Structures are given as C-alpha cells and as structure tokens.
Amino acid sequence: ASPAGPRDTVVVVMTLFSKITGEVDKADAAFDALAVPGSASALERQSAVDASLDLLVSSQAQMNKMQRNAQETDPDKQTYGPAMREKVLALAARFDAVRGKGEELKAAIEPLAVEEARAKDAEERAAREAEEAAHLRQQEEARKAEEARAVAEAAAAAAEAEAQRAKKEEEQRRIAEIQAAKAKAEQETAIAAAVKIAQEEAAAAEARAAAEAEKEKKREESRAKKEALRERTAVKPQPDPAKLASMLSSVTAAAPAAPKTWGSVHHVVGGAVELRSLLEEAKAAGALTVVDWSMTTCGPCQRIKPIYEQMARTRPTALFVGVDTHASPLNAALAREAAVSAFPTFHFYVDMQRKADLVGADTARLAMMVQQHDPIDATKLPSEGEGEPNPATKTEMQAAILKALGELKESTASMDDFVTSVQTLLTFVGNVLAHPGEDKYRSVKMNNNTFNQRLGRHNGGVAAMEAFGFKRVAGAEPMLVISKAAAKHDGLPAMKVLLERAVPARHAAVPSASGVAPPLVNPFAALGGMGGMPPMNPQMMQQMMDTFASNPQALSRMAEMVRNNPGLIQQAAASNPQMAQMLQANPHMQQMMEQMASDPAALSAALNNPFARSMMGAGVEDMGAGAAAAAPPPSEFAPQGMSEDEMLAEAIRRSMSEDSGGGGESEGNQPPSQP
Questions:
Q1: What is the rounded distance in angstroms from the CA atom of residue 348 to the CA atom of residue 374?
Q2: Per residue, what are the HEC states of 80-122?
Q3: Which residues pair with 322 in a beta bridge?
Q4: Is 265 helix (H, G, I), strand (E, B) or coil?
Q5: Cα-flanking dihedrals φ and ψ of residue 219, to 5°?
Q6: DSSP code for 37
Q7: How far apart are CA 278 and CA 383, in angstroms?
C-alpha cells in the first residue's frame, strides 16, 4: 500500500481528536451527574465512575501520543499545524482534569460503597440464614410428624396387643371357671360316694357276730385305762411350805438377771460427752455398742439406715448408735476427733474399747460383724431357771387358739394346706409336752424353711404358736421360744386335744372301685329315716357334717323337716336307742338339730368352723367303732373325782388308741419329732 498523504493524516487525526473529545465530554458529564449523592446508590455510582474511568484509561495512550506530537518543536517532525497543536494541547489538559475529577469522585464514593456493600452482604447473609432456618424448621416439623406417626402406630399396636391379652385372659378365666366347677362337681360326687361306702361298711360291721366279743374286749381295756388315769390324777401330797419357799428363793437367786435391752437406734447430737455416756451404759450391761457415722447428704448412708434400724429392733441386747455429722457442730467435731473420713463408717465397741471398723454400706458384712462381736447371744435359752410362766387361763388359751386357727383356716388355700399347718403345729406342741425340759424342743427358728412353708407363712400361724405360750425372741435369727414354766401349763394337754380335733378325719374324696365317682346320694340316708338309724362312728359323723357344710340345699331340707315336725327329734330318739345314747353323750347334737330349724345359715357357718364341728362330734367319737348297742356307757366311764376336762381328754385318748388298733401304746402314739 502506498504511504498516506498529508490529507489522509489530517483526517485520521481529526477523527481521533473528535473521538477522544467525545469521550472526555461524556465522562465529564457523567462525573458531574454522579457527584450528586441522591442520584443513585453508592455501589451504582461507584460502578458508573469506574466505567467512565475505564473509558478514559483505554484512550490514555492515544491521548498521550497526540500530546507528544503536538509538543514536537522540530519543524521537520511536526504533524499538526499551529491551530491543531493548540486544540490537542487543550484537549490533553482537559483529559487530565476530567480523569483527575473522576479519581476524586471515586475516592469520595468508595467508603460509602464499601459500607453499602457490607450492609448488602449482611442483608444477603440474613436472607440466607432465614432461608436456612425455614428449611431446618420444615425438616424438624417433618421429623416430628414422622415421630408422631410412629408413636401413633406403636400405641395402636400396644392397644391391639392389650386387647389380645385381655381376650386371652378372659378365655383362660372362663376355662378355669369351667374346670373349677367340674372339679367341685366331681368332689361333691366323690364325697357322696364316700358317705355311702362308709354307711355300707358300718352296716356290714354291725352284722358281724364278732363285734360283740370285740366290744367286750375293748370295755375291759377301757376299765384298765381309766384305772391308770385315776391313779395318774390322784391328789398328791403338797410339799412343806417352808421347804417350798426355800426352794423358790434358791431358784430365784440362781436365776441370771435379764440382760439390758434397747431395741432402737440412739441418735447422738451432743458429741463426745453423749457418746461416752452411751459407751459407759453399754459397758455396765456387758453389751456391744455399734456406732454408725453418717451424713445427711450421703446416699449410701440413707440407703442402709432402715436396715441398721431393723438390726437395732431385732437385736435389743446390743446398743446401736447413730452419729450424723450434720446434726450438730459437736457431732462434726467428734467425727474429726475419731478420724472418720468416709461415710458410712461403723465402729464396734466392747467395754468402751473399739474392736473393729467397717467402711461402706455392706449390709451382709455389717450383720456378720455384729454377730461376731456381740458378747450376748440373744437367741440362747437360759440354761437355769424355769423362765416366765404363761399367765393365760385355760379359757383364755382356748379362745386365743380358736381365733388363731380361724385366721389360719381362712388364709390357707385348701383343706390339705390347713391340715398340714395344724399337723405341723401339733408336732411342735407335742415336742414341748414330750420334752418340756429340753431347750431344743422349746425353740423354733422363724426363718426355718420347713416352719415357714408349712405354718409360719400363713396368717394366724405364728399367732397359734403364741397362743400355746411361745414368745418371739429377737436376734440375728428371730425365734419362737416357750419357757420351761410355760411348757408346764396345765392347759397344754387339753389344748393339744382341741388342736387334734381341728384336723378332719377324712378331708379327701374317696373314688369308687371303677375309678368313676358314683352319683350324689341322699345326704339324709345316714339318719336311716330317723327311726332306723345305723351305728354312727366318728368318720360317718364327720362325713355327714361335710355333706351338710358343702350342700346348703340338703341342710335347708333337713331344717324344714325338723321345723315342720317339732317332735321329730324326740320320736327318733325314742325309737332308736343309739340316737338316744348319742344325744345323751353329746348335748351339742341336740342343739345342732334345734338350730337347724331356727337358723340354717348360722349352722352352715358353724359347720365350716373346724372347732365347732369337733365339739359337735365329741359324743360320737367317744362311742368308738362298736357303738351299736343301745346300752349306756358303763359307770366306770365317769369315775369319781374326774373333772370335765379330764373326762374329755380320756375320751379322746381312748378314741385315738382304739383307732390305732386296740390297747397299749402304738407307734402312732409316740411323741412327735421336731421337723
């Protein structure tokens, strides 16, 4: 290409001059407008200023070149004419002034823009945080909704399970009721069968010709036994009063003094002075002192506190002391003096000397150390002396026994359990009567497993033992103990007979030979139409009362018969010598018959009381197995000088002896052993 001519150069320069002039004018106008504070935000003004400055910066090189050409002094190198040079130099000056104006404006706007940017960032950050919080709330609400749904589903499932359980329990209860009703029906049927079998056996025995000879033999044996009883109960000469007084005084002098007892925890508040006084008191009694160092804020101290108090009650021959270091400043000083650094801490003192320490709430270890260091054995029976007698009269003793055994009967689950409990009680009482002077037969450990299973766990069991004269003795192993004097109470033998009457002769049903219980028979068949009554023995009488007790309808029908015919009892007695003998021997039977007519409900309640039933059957028992004869008992049966209690005891003894097979002492009459 050919080089540009002068004309072309002028055109280019003018074009560039016009371009830069326009840019400077535009930037100058923009800077003037942006200098007004309210025209736009600081950030917008800053951005517009930067744009205008960027435009000037982009033209700076061209402006500098034009300025150099205009300032050229060499005529050969000059590009512009004089007029153009002046215009270019004026434009360069204005270019620099406008650019400087823009820079100043930028510097003025920049702090405002920075503050505005900071506020905008804060606003955007707050908006983001608000958005995130809203998102978290939505997530939390969704989580709670899911949990509520899960809880509702679990509750529905639990309700369904509970409904199923209740349905199952109801079905089991219904089945149990059906089985109980079936068992009751079978028992009633079996009882009726047993009554019928007993009646048939009694009728067959009466028909045998050998019965008369056996009866005569038993009469002879009875005479011999009554003679022996008369000799045993004969009045013995009383000892000389002076010798008796001397003997009693020697026994009293030889008897050891009862140890001092406390029975509760003594809480110290007076510090060392009070504790020393207690230690001196225990030393004088020869007793163990246990000191429990504790604090109110100590958890283990509070947990073992009731156990410690129970030990104090069960071992009254030892002095149990409690020292709470928070109770008083004196107690706190005493604990520091005793160098107690952990709680609870237990100190064991004998004769005011500390024998052992125990740190911590170790119940088993505490009980063992109390047992180990106690010089007084609270469970040991006195080896000398008779002890305290039982102050109860026979009547009071009998009332207490009847009450306790009534409670025992109510608390046992079945007749078998009641019989087991009474037989266990008989064992202990029999041991006392057979061995009144031996300590091992006069004490029972209350935590003995056999005692608890058979008697102690039932309501009325321990009360029955206490009614016979046993007393509770506290200690590491609580015991029931009867003193030698109480063991010699003259009412014990008669009370033992009374207790034996509480055990039914037959309390289990007897099935038929085929294994199927026979149908229920008429419960009045045992009376033989009142006029033709067969011989009654204790078992038949017991079964008849069992029938009436378990069959209220039969009892009501019998009551109606007696009520409609007031002379029925006398008519039956006139035509049946045995019944006349029975009513004569047992007035309670007459009362029972009369009560049938006046109050069947009261009689039903009496038939369910083992002692009332034993009194009703007393006369029948005395008649023995061969009581078919109409003749009254021989005159020797009631020898002169025998009290009513002695006659009753002898009658029961004879009945028991005859049931075991005849005369003499049999194995069944040996004293029972301790279980």
A1: 9
A2: CCHHHHHHHHHHHHHHHHHHHHHHHHHHHHHHHHHHHHHHHHH
A3: 267, 292
A4: strand
A5: -60, -40
A6: G
A7: 30
Catalytic residue among 13, 34, 198, 298: 298
Q: What's the token pair of residue 521?
A: 């028979």
HSE of 480, CA atoms in CB hemisphere, 13 A: 24
pLDDT for 535: 47
Contact of 593 with 533, CB cutoff 8 Å: no
**Please, which residues have CB within 8 angstroms of residue 557's CB and are 6 or more apart in sequence?**
524
pLDDT of residue 60: 94
Amino acid at 606: A
**Contact by Cβ (8 Å): 562, 583:** no
**Maximum pairwise Cα distance, the chain:** 188
Alpha-carbon gap, residue 626 to 581, rounded angstroms = 13
Q: Which amino acid is at 201?
A: E
CA-CA distances (angstroms) from residue 510 to 186, 445, 507?
11, 37, 10
pLDDT computed for residue 664 by the predictor: 39
Per the CB < 8 A criterion, the answer to whether 193 and 517 are in contact is yes
Query: Is 301 labeled as catalytic in the residue annotation?
Result: yes
Positive/negative CA dihedral, 467, 470, 474, 478: negative
What does the pLDDT look like over 106-123, one tens digit per residue?
999 999 899 889 998 999
- Regions of the chain short of the pLDDT cut 70: 1-10, 231-259, 377-385, 474-477, 502-545, 547-550, 553-554, 562, 566-569, 571-579, 582-583, 585-675
What's the CA angle centered on 296, arms 292 and 302, to 5 degrees?
Answer: 65
* Res 600: pLDDT: 66
Q: What are phi and psi of 473, to 5 degrees?
A: -120, 120
Q: Are 433 and 493 in contact (CB under 8 A)?
A: yes
Contact 650/493 with Cβ under 8 angstroms? no
Residue 297, helix vs strand vs coil: coil
Contact 555, 604 (CB under 8 A): yes
Structure-derived torsion over alpha carbons of residues 147, 153, 156, 162, reported in degrees to the nearest 10: -90
565 phi, psi to nearest 5 deg? -135, 85
How many other C-beta atoms lie within 10 A of the C-beta of residue 670?
10
Q: Active-site residue among 202, 285, 295, 301?
A: 301
Residues 6+ apart with CB under 8 A from 112: 42
Q: Are strands 353-359 and 443-445 parallel, antiparallel or unpaired?
A: unpaired
Q: For residue range 278-323, what is the model confidence (pLDDT) as tens digits?
A: 999 999 999 999 999 999 999 999 999 999 999 999 899 999 999 9
Whether residue 225 lies in the annotated active site:
no
d(CA 262, CA 264): 6
Q: Order of strands, edge to edge, in the sheet holding 443-445?
A: 443-445, 479-481, 471-473
Q: What is the pLDDT of residue 242?
A: 55
- What per-residue confidence (pLDDT) applies to 244? 41
- Please, how many CA atoms are within 13 Å of residue 19, restricted to the half-sphere of its CB? 14
Tell me the CB-side half-sphere exposure of residue 25, using CA atoms within 13 A.
6
Q: How many CB atoms lie within 10 A of CB 146?
A: 10
What are 381's two structure tokens? 């029976």
> What integer pLDDT is reported at residue 452 of this predicted model?
86
Q: How far apart are CA 529 and CA 524, in angstroms?
A: 8
**Distance, CA of 359 to CA of 342 (rounded, Å):** 7
203 three-class SS:
helix
